[in-house]
Fold these 4 entries.
Entry 1:
Amino acid sequence: MGEENKGMAMTFTLVSHLREKLSGLVENRVKTHVAEAHERERLVIEAEEARTRGTPVTVESFKAWKANFDKEMAQKKLRDEEEKLRGLTPKEREEIKKIATRFTGRQLFERNRNLEHEEDSLMEEGTVSVDFSQYDRTQAVKEDDEEDRVHFSDSD
């Protein structure tokens, strides 16, 4: 039997055997790589789900978060205002403080509901009241229209 496998027949038998073993090894490697890829993908998906799952929101946890958030925002606003005031002149700082201490229309209304009758007391010093009935805008518009028109003359 050994005599039969000499020469070309022996080479063919060895090559066939090696080819089968090599194809088996390649298949195992491919399966291993595919399994590893699936495992990595599964781990990534699990990590993403764990990241997005988070903690459930309850009334207590929301109130705690909201208090912390409001505190942070107040600190940020204070820092921003301080930064803004640093770049201003003392006169501008005083003007901003004056504006900040003035009441808004809503605050004035809530303090005194009779504002309609007391509007004269709310006017700042040096404010002049304007009587709009003295002005006629239609006349000014007509004059502007006449000036903008192009006039042609046939005298040439």
Entry 2:
Amino acid sequence: MSTPGDASPVNASFCDLCDSFLNENGKESITSLTRTLDNIANDLAQNEALRAQMGADSPSIWPSLRRLWDFLAELVTSHEDSVSTRTLVISISRFTRNLVAGVSANQQNAFENELSLRQILYFYSSWSANQDPGSYTVTRMAVQTLSNMVTSNESLMSRLWETYMGLSEEQVVIIRLLGSPDARTILSLLVLLVNCIHESSERRALLVTKRVGVRICITLLDRLVSLYDAEDSSDGAKAFDYGYHLFAHLFDGGFAPELYKNLKVAEEVIAPHQTTLLKLLDSYLQSSHSSAAPTGMCPMFTKCFFEFSTYSQEAAKKAIGNGSAEDAAGRYGDSTVPDSLDLLFPKVCEALVLVTQCIVSIMLFFEENRTSAISGDDMRPLIRDAVSSEGQNIAVSAIELLRLLDIFLPRINFGKPVLPPGTEQKLNSPAAADPTGFSYLKRDLVRLLGVLCHKDKKIQDCVRNCGGITVIMNMCVVDERNPYLREHAIFTLHNLLEGNTDNQTVVDSIQPSRTWGEDGILRAR
């Protein structure tokens, strides 16, 4: 079979073969059926005209193909899983996949078998099937068939999406398939998902608002975490890239705030899936994007910043008392220091670092890419003038947190913690021993302040009025937990002083009372 003219005889042969196989006496002829289907599938893969002609010619292949899929679904759901059954599923799936590729009319006819295909996918995405590597090829081929059935067919993609979003979570095979140990299956599935939401605001909205859609996002976020360390160019790495692109499509459409809200866990300040989403947003904002998307994210990020900063301030105060150096000396020097921290504190700080980086990326983006639609000056008030429930703006909130962190998180120099002036060198702080979650926090808060006060007298004055200049000056030190902290602090100090004589006067009035020794300890002059 090599020319379109052979399609009609092939149709007749296909229908006769299916009838023979489905006859009560012909169900043992699996080898003959699969061999013929595989040969036809190979020709279909190479010839789009043949695909179109075979789908349109008489006798029609669609009733016979429908009977095959119904038989297959009944066979699989009756738990008759054997090598011959798997071979049959692979063969019929491959034939259907190649038949519908790029031919709208064939997709429309083949989509009538979606329910049977879904039942087969449901069976082969079970926990027991996932434990058997022999089932991976079956699952992967069935997923590719479903993908080809709807790709580039707007009406079918909408039908499929609306159907799946309306099912109960237990029946949605997408969620089950995301648990497959096979990276190639995950890759095939993500190709389908990306194709479905590409350039469709309606389907993106369903994904982030429907309960099933949010569950898909949660499962996918978990899967991306497991795929993050996949070897370059491997199927796992490709699957990670497709997963990232799926979320990038959601971000492009302005759905990040809604999705972040729907990932929230009751009574938790930050959920693990929200943290993973923030990591993706951080990466997204450092790559190319439209101006509309980051602008719409500003309220979300400022709200998160205040929430995390307020929580961190309260957690730090509980650990160090009232936050004074004198109190810290008493707490750190005796056995009353708690042996453990608020368990959420490190997680909140990790999220705060991500949010801070996102805000900085947005501000720098608009500074570097001013457009007629929106400029950096238009966007700056969205961040600069945002106020927390405690009445703090972002600059004041960052300064207050840095003031507390300077006590709670002693800087690390040559692998040893260095305490602020007035504290004893004995330290039992768990934060100093275990920096998990606290890395880069001071550095990124200082960096944010540097960007905020750049040529902005209102923020410059605000930082001075809350005593922030000395806080920034105290950050001009080496801290192994915060690489380049000193450099960012110097840059921020420069921006605070530039064009502001009042701030310059404050710095001129400050006289050093101690100097850093070669051992990294602050000593009296």
Entry 3:
Amino acid sequence: MRFTRKEAALNQINLAIRLFHEGEFAGGATILFMASSIVPLSVSSSSINGTADSSVVSA
């Protein structure tokens, strides 16, 4: 299965949110940190305009 870097990061962010809601704060923080290493979590004009890195990663 192949994902773009953005899709992989969004999947990890969604998992981190679910873990936080379940009270798994350490796990959520770890997953969120991993997502930020794939795609920086700051909003930039390039990500808003859709020109951010869309390299493909394998899962």
Entry 4:
Amino acid sequence: MTSGRSELRIFLVLYLLSLPLQLITTGSIIRQGTTSLVVLTAIHAGVVAALFWTLLANAIVATQVVEDGTLSSLVPMGILALLFFVATTYISLDVALVITDLFGPSDPPQAVHSTPLFVFTSVWPAAAAFLYFVIMAYIIVGVLRERRPMLYYLAAAVCFVLGELAWFLLGKVICKNTNAKIDGRFIATLLETACVGALFMGWRSITEESWDDYNY
């Protein structure tokens, strides 16, 4: 019932693209407050929003509502990913640079807060991840009646939740206890990468036969 090699590749490529952007935007490579950092941060936000759409799209394709690897799957997936990227990137730039008054400025301006931006960068990723795990759990347990692959997805879910906690709640604690050598963002990135790895292993475990027959 599941395959989606092409769709999974798109997700993995976007994740790999997000890693250097995350390194640049959360590190000290570019001076804080510069326009270049604002632009890269906006692009990173757009990539993340698109990334979570491709994650959810992989679950939708796994239900075989459309045939995986075909234009009926890849074209809508690509178009919506592009829309998520453009919308989130534009809103991020609008809030930070005050291009218009539609989405910004934030209050206070230095906080760079915006409800639409919060929805695209926080609410949407959480909702997409939740729906992904629900759909995949239904497919694996309810349809395929497998148990072992579900362990990978449970591990991925745990890593995702821990990564979000490290990012939003435990950053200062981790930084303080490691004498500022490691911060929450570093731990979150490791956990997110472990999550993606577990997702890949879970996907491979339920498509193992077709994977072995695949000719690169």
